[in-house]
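Final report, closing paragraph on structural work. Over the funding period we assembled a curated collection of sequence-structure pairs, and we close with a single example.
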Amino acid sequence: MEVRKLPALEVNLDAMRTNAQVLTGICGQYGIDVAGVIKFSDGDLQVARAYADGGCAQLAVSRAKHLKALKETFPEKETLLTRGPTRSDIDDTARYADLSLHSDADVLRLLDEAAGKFGTCPGIILMLDVGDLREGVDNIDELVELAKLVESLPNLKLRGVGTNHACLNGVLPTWDNLTFLVNGAKAVEQAIGRKLDYISGGSSINLLLLKDGVNAMPPEVNHLRLGGTIANPMNIRLGRGLAFPGTREDTVRITAEIVEIHVKDSAPKGESTKNWAGHTVTREDKGRRLRAILALGSQDVSDAATMIPLDEGVEIVGCSSDHTIVDVTDTGREWKSGDTLTFKVRYANMLYAFTGDHLNVEYHYDA
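Its predicted structure, as stored:
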């Protein structure tokens, strides 16, 4: 009998497709196109298929190395690069990115030169920083100057302006800061004498402004970049209190194997200092407890202690780089090495699991 390769990342592609359908449908009611961002999956083409079949207008990644396979597999879909390309990424961006996000003049000139070499005409979305202080110029005058530059470059096409929220400093999207973006877009349109295709309002965090059947964004915003909420809506529900009816949370799970199980003290013996990650740990003394060690650690899934056990009564005690320790005393069942435990995961767990090479990816469909 073939032995299952563990730990495993279990991906329900039907559930992801359903989530894409629900969210593109909601956005579509307000004239908003959705770029399906699959950067968390390390450019996984089966995940991309679920997003494409779910109605995403573009397929988006943050690493230029994923663009070629994406474009060749889905020629009917526009590709979007969500991070400004490095010098070594310029050629792939020029050849395979239909759209890319930019705010640096020198990079734009290099991209224009490469596009001329390959005979392409990449679409450009210029980024305006509305307060979170990540990428983008922070004033409309500079945005207009960048727009004029793109218009002067023969091998680039200015397609829109965009912004980002909440990723660096937690600044949330509001009517006011999105109106600043819209005003920037209008200034650009006046300067270049034509209408832009896209005003890209941000990412999954912007869905906070589309709840309860009300669009609290300026109506000019017609594009969002959604990734994590399609792949893992549980994350935004727990983190932001946001859930959309019809979305599914059975998209991604992680299963790991017990490699050791013993009854042991719950509090450490001797002086407790900092652990492997440099954190000071305090443990409540609960007496002797049944503790299982899983072959899964933070190298595999970021902070393994943030996962959510599916089995009732399981408590995650902690983790190191290669091990996760769980207390199974109160589960009401017997355990042995070789048994498995399955967890719901947060975005960071999912990101590490996909982009590392330590977990076996298992694709599932509804029965």
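The longest strand covers residues 252-265. The two ends are 23 Å apart (CA to CA). We thank the funder for supporting this effort.
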